[in-house]
Structures are given as C-alpha cells and as structure tokens.
Amino acid sequence: MTRRVRLERDTLWLSGADMIALLVGIVVHVVLTRTFTDGDYGRWVLLLDLFYVTATIVDLGLPTLIGRDGERLGAGAHDLVHRCLRLQIRFALPIIVIGGLLGWMWVGESTPWLIASFILALSACIQILTYAHRAALRALGESRQEALVRFVDRGATAAGIVLAASLFGAHPIALALATFVGPLGAVMIAIWLGERRLRTTTGGLELETTAADGRVLIGLGVPFLLAAIALVANVRIEKLMLGTISTPEQVEIFQIAWLAFIAGYAPILSIRAVMLSCCGEVRDEKEKMWYRAKRAAVLIGIAAIPGYFIGGLIGHEAIIAVFPDYADNATVVFSWMLMAWILALVASVPLTLVQVSERPLRYAALLWSGIVADLIACIVLIPDSSFPAEQAAFAAIIGAGVVLIAAMMEAWRLHAEESTVLVAEP
C-alpha cells in the first residue's frame, strides 16, 4: 500500500520525535553547563549556532524542492534525490574549511578549540546531508521513518556527549567528536530508509525538477536556500548578537530560556514541513490547497491557547528544576519568548501558502524581513542594557511580529489574485 501525506498524523510523528529529541537535548545541556566553566558553555553554544547557520548553505534549498514535488514525481523522486546530494557534497568541503576557521577565530585561538571547530563544522554539514532523504520520506508519507532519523541524530549525540563529559570533562575535542556521532548515524539511516522507500516508488508526473541539471536545480532552490538560512538564523540571531555585542554569560542565560522555547518551536517547524508536502501535493488545484490551509489554520488556532499556557507552565518549572543556577534570569527571558512563539505559530499557514506559490522568493523575503527587524532591534536594545538577554527576547518578539503581519498580507494578496483569475475564466 502507498502511504499519502496526512497533516495530523505526520505532524504528530515529527513533533513527537522532536519533543523526545529535545528532552534528550536538555539532558545534554545540563551536562554541558555543569562541565564547562569560565564562560566556555557560552562559547560552545556560539560555535554550534554559527555552524548551524553557515552549514545551511550546503542545503541549497534542494530538500524543499524534494518535499514539495516528491509525491507528484513518483519514481522520478529517486533520481532527484541523487542529483541534489551530488550538488550538496560539492559545497560541503569549502563550508567546513571556512566555517571551522571562523569559529576558531571567534571563540579563541587555541589548538583544542581549532580542532573542535572543524569537527563541529563537519558535523553540521553531515547533518544537512540527511535532509534530501528525509524530505523524500516525508513527501512519500513516511514521516514516521523521518522521525526515527531525527531521533537517532539527537539520541546518539546525547549519549556521546554524556560519555565524553564523564571521561574527559570539558575537553572541547572529545565533546566535538561526541557531537559528530549523531549526524553520522543519522545520515547512514536516512540513506538506508530513503533508498529502500524510493526504489519502490512508481509512476509520477513530468515536472520542472524531473530532468533539471545542476545549474537549473540551484536556480530553483535559491529562494528556498534563502528561506532555509533565515529559518535557522531566525531562532539563533539573538544569541549570535549577544555573543557579538554582549558577553558569553548573557548567551548562557538566553540559551537556557531558548531551550524551553525551542521545545515549543519544534512542533511549529514540523507543522510547516508537513504543510509544505500537504499543500504542495495540490498546489495546482487552488480550491483544494486553500481548503487544506483552512483546516490547518483551525487546528493551529485550537492548539495555540492551551499550548501557550501549558507550555509556559512546563517551561518555567523545567528551567527552575533543571537549571537552578540560571532560573531567576532565564524564566524572565522565557516568559517574553512565549509571545514570539504564539506569533510564529500563527504565521505558519500564511507562510506555507506563500512558500508553495509560483513566487517562492517572496517566502524567503518574508523570513528575511523578520531577521532584519530582529537584527535592528538587537542593535538598538542590547547595548548599554542592564539585562541584555531580556532585550534580546524583545527583539525576537519584534521579528516574529513583522513576519506574521507581512505573511498575512502576502497570503491575502495571493488569494485575491487567484480569486480574480477564477472569476475571469469563462
């Protein structure tokens, strides 16, 4: 039997995997906060965030094309995945070299941190290389298998970090090698599961991605690459700005609040990923697409209010229980970040509608409008503040609000254009 994408089921699979992975990740950060001293935990966080942003260039926007077109391509999805991977691997090596050097120069010029920087840059790029097969699995209705890949990624990394910290303490090379274990295991499992599923796929339509060469694929993926970088930077720009303008200690406070925030943000990303495949499947049938979008909006609206209060309560209690040394300041930051969470959740539907439209570059522009607003707010609010981490949370609210307003206006404009076309048709 052929599985089809289903919004509720697939979102639950991916969100469930993300929640488990995040709980495991919190254990990792508990270990790291108690292992590192003298601001080294803040430096570690800055390195990871820097590499998550720079390694996203390896994405090239191609997994989004696979997630959008995979179901309609049928048997053609297999070849598309292989073409995408060949392109991504070519971009990975220079990113590893450049990213490793940038990270080393940023956090300190010592040999252990230099080696750790290159290992972490490699880990980030390997993780990106799992996305092509993960997107194919999701597009073909196998979000449960993609969920397994996500869990292996985080779970193996967590086990490695705990083991490395117990044996070697705060040694950055040992901890970096432990971080590499998860992406390595994830890419192997993603390829195994993805290839097995893709080989059984038959039929399919002729689309613009069916026989596109490397240059054409890169051109098609550019809007989604810009969006992918924005998605990664969007939840990390505040920490990067704190590391640049403020101190590693403020990064640590913000990171603890961010861990509670990202536990609720992961389901948002899962909803958007599933909606991309769900709406992409009927992107040429406008009535069906808008019907699915309305259903998603209703589900999100129902989940938003209890999610805000329940998530807020759990987040506060978790910070107090797990990170008592940071609790006084981190809970304040987390309270403000909940507002950004609500705004980002509500923006999911209009953002996806723009993403699957004929002008995906506007989707990237929407996300970057939020990044720019967030960046400007950080530059204005953080300097000379007595509590920079709180000001960074205010900046996150401003960025999320800009994205929501702009996305709603753009989605409404698209709907009006399509309605005009339908009325004009004889």
Order of helices and strands: HHHHHHHHHHHHHHHH
Tell me what portion of residues adopts beta-strand conformation: under 5%
Radius of gyration: 21 Å
- How would you sum up the global shape? globular
Keywords:
426 residues; 2 domains; 16 helices; 84% helix
Can you describe this structure?
This protein has 426 residues and is an all-alpha fold. It folds into two domains: 222 residues, no CATH class; 187 residues, no CATH class. It has 16 helices and no strands. Helix 1 packs parallel to helix 7, helix 2 runs antiparallel to helix 4 and helix 10 runs antiparallel to helix 16. The radius of gyration is 21 Å and the shape is globular. 52% of the residues are buried. The model has no long low-confidence stretch (mean pLDDT 83).
Furnish the topology, listing elements before pairings.
Blueprint: H1 7-35, H2 40-55, H3 62-73, H4 76-107, H5 111-128, H6 131-139, H7 143-168, H8 172-199, H9 214-234, H10 237-245, H11 248-280, H12 286-322, H13 327-346, H14 348-355, H15 361-381, H16 388-424
